[in-house]
Amino acid sequence: MTDTARCRVEAVIFAGGVGRRMGGGPRPKQFLELGGRPVIDYTIAHFAEHPQVTGIVVVCLESWIPYLERVLARRRYEVPIAVVPGGATGQESIFRGLSYLHDLHPGDREAIVLVHDGVRPLIDGETISACVESVQNRGCTATVAPAIETITLTDDEGAIVQVIPRDEVSLARAPQAFRLEDLYGAHVRAQREGLDEFIDSVSMMTHFGYRIFTVEGPAENIKVTTPMDYYAFKGYMDARDQRMLWAPE
Length: 249
Description:
The chain is an alpha/beta fold and about 250 residues long. It has helices at about 40-50, 65-75, 90-105, 125-135, 180-190, 200-205, 225-245, and strands at about 10-15, 35, 35-40, 55-60, 80-85, 110-115, 140-145, 150-155, 160-165, 170-180, 215.
């Protein structure tokens, strides 16, 4: 087991999407504001304020880097935060973040990296801690949430061929956690083999034979990609503020 206090824990937060499913507005989804703060800042705060996180790299749409840097300057987080431009695909963008960390900490076999969506602002510290512990004690780790609705398999004609018991499946969430050198090496290998269509880091690591363990995260840890998601996020934050307002002293 690795000593948590001495282990470097870095986060790569992906904020490179353009948000087409949000309705085509002028702002990408990660920069939509709630309470005067962009969604991405709510996300960053969970990692920047976590006691185990030693650094953050935000992979950002290049045209929005100046805006994000102004946001970060106002917030004055104590943990080092770098902002690097994204690539043409999500896979390329994550690799740019990993490359920055690999160059910053070459040869650090113990370093852990947490890969997280910039538009998942409802992650919590407990889940981040659980991911770190899981990587240290078991290996590659994915955050999941229980499936709360019936899941079916259908054939080419749309007919149901199987109803899968909910207790046998879970919903993939984030963060996903790995040893930095392992994930960086897998990306290099994928490039060498011309594999550029992995949907996420867990899919890549599974392809290369890594066993993936899971930790359960909060049910509200949704990805804000549609207007309905945004209003769900707003509703959750409003409810949280009400609880804090009326909490007994």
